[in-house]
Amino acid sequence: MIAVRNLSKIYKVSNADNSSLFSSIKSFISREYRNIKALDQIDWEVAQGDIHALIGRNGSGKSTLVKILSGVIYPTEGEALINHCIPWKDRIKYVKNIGVVLGHKTQLTWELPAIDTFILYKNLYSVKTDFFNENLKYLIKEFDAETIIRKPVRNLSLGERMKCEVICSLLHAPKVLFLDEPTIGLDLISKDQVRSAIKNINKELGTTIVLTSHDISDILSLCNKISLIDKGRFLFKGSVNELLEVHASYKLISVDLLKRVDECCLDSFTYIKTGDYSIQIELNGTNNSIHKRLHQVIDELPISDITVESVKLEQVVKSYYEKT
Fold first, then answer.
1. Which CATH number characterizes residue 180's domain?
2. What is the pLDDT of residue 99?
3. Same-domain pairing of 181 and 231
4. 237 and 253 belong to one structural domain
5. Domain-located, residue 1
6. What is the DSSP string of 21-72?
7. 229-250: per-residue pLDDT in tens?
C-alpha cells in the first residue's frame, strides 16, 4: 500500500543574524544558507489495512514524511508509491484516495456548520449523492455526531470539532488516512470515542491508517505496527509487541517503605527516589538474575508494599531517544 525508498528531504535555511541593524543589512545583501536534513534516505513500508504509528520527537522528521506522503511537499530525492500513485506527481488522481487530518489545522469553515463543509467536499471530490448520504450516515453514527454537525464550527468543543474533521476526511471513502495528532487536547471521553470510531472504520472499511501521536495510549489502543523516527532516520520498525520484547528483560520495581532509609543503603540498586518513603528500582537481566535482585530488595529494605511492572512503551521509546 505504502512503499518508500531512499527518501530524503533537505531544507535550506538562512544563517541570517538579526542581532543588529548592521547584521541584518549584511545578511540581506550577502545571505548565507545551511542545509538541514529532515529525512535521510529512509525506506519504509505500510501494509494495506494496517493502523501504523509513526512516532518521534519534535523535529524528528515525522511531519515532513506525512506531508510528502500527502503530496503537500516534494522530497529532495527518493521515491514513494502509495496505492500505485506517486503523491507529488499524480496529485489529482492521488488525493481522491487519501484523507488527511492535521490536529493543529482545520479544514472546516469556522463560521458555518460542519455539514456545509461536508457538502462542499462532496462536490470537490465528485462524490455521488447516494454514496455520500449513505457514507455520511454511517460516519455520523460511528462518531455520535448527529447533533454537532449542524452547529457552527466556532461553537464546537475541541473534541466535537475533531470528530467533524475526521468525518470530513472520510466522506470520499479514501483508501489511506493520515492522522497527525488526532486526539491532541481532547478529554478522556472524547479520546475514547474518536479511537473507537477509527478502529471500527479500519476494521469495517479496510482503511489503511498512518497515525502520528505523542500520546502513547493512542498507539497502544489503535496500532498494530509502529515506526520510531529520530533525526530523519528510523530507529525501529515493527509491531508494538516486537518493540516491547526487545526490552522484555527490564522490570520496574515500585517500593513503599515503612521508614526513611539512608542513601548508602541504596548504593547497590539503580533507583529513582520518588518520595521520602518511596523509590523505584530498575532491574534488567535474565529472569533468574531479576529474581535474585528482587529477593535482595525484599531482604535489605523496610518494605510496606511492592509492585513489579514490566517495561512500558514510554520507557522503551525514551531509551531509544537516549541512545541518539
1. 3.40.50.300
2. 95
3. yes
4. no
5. no
6. HHHHHHHHHS--EEEEEEEEEEEEEE-TT-EEEEE--TTSSHHHHHHHHTTS
7. 999 999 999 998 888 776 666 7
Report pLDDT for 104: 74
What's the CATH number where 271 sits? Answer: 3.30.70
User: For residue 224, what are the CA distances in angstroms to 5, 41, 99, 218, 239?
Assistant: 22, 25, 20, 11, 6
Entry pTM = 0.81
CA–CA distance, 111 with 106 (Å, rounded to integer)? 12
Same domain, 120 and 177: yes
171-189 pLDDT, tens digit per residue, is 999 999 999 888 887 888 8
Q: Where are the alpha helices (DSSP H) in 223-312?
A: 240-246, 287-300
Cα–Cα distance for residue pair 163/120, rounded to 1 Å: 17
What is the pLDDT, as a whole number, of residue 315?
Answer: 76
Which grid cell sits at 68? 510528502
Overall domain count for the chain: 2
pLDDT given for residue 8 in this prediction = 97
Examine residue 38 and state whether it is found in any structural domain, yes or no.
no
d(CA 140, CA 135): 9
Q: Is 197 left (phi over 0), alpha (psi -120 to 50) or beta?
A: alpha
Place of cell 505500510: 46
Based on the domain organization, do 227 and 305 belong to the same domain? no
- Do residue 170 and residue 271 come from a single domain? no
Q: Which domain holds residue 315?
A: 248-323
Our CA dihedral for 258, 263, 264, 267, rounded to 10 degrees, sits at 100
Indicate whether 105 and 215 sit together in one domain. Answer: yes
Question: What confidence category does residue 21 fall into, taking pLDDT thresholds of 50, 70 and 90?
Answer: low
pLDDT greater than 90 at residue 289:
no
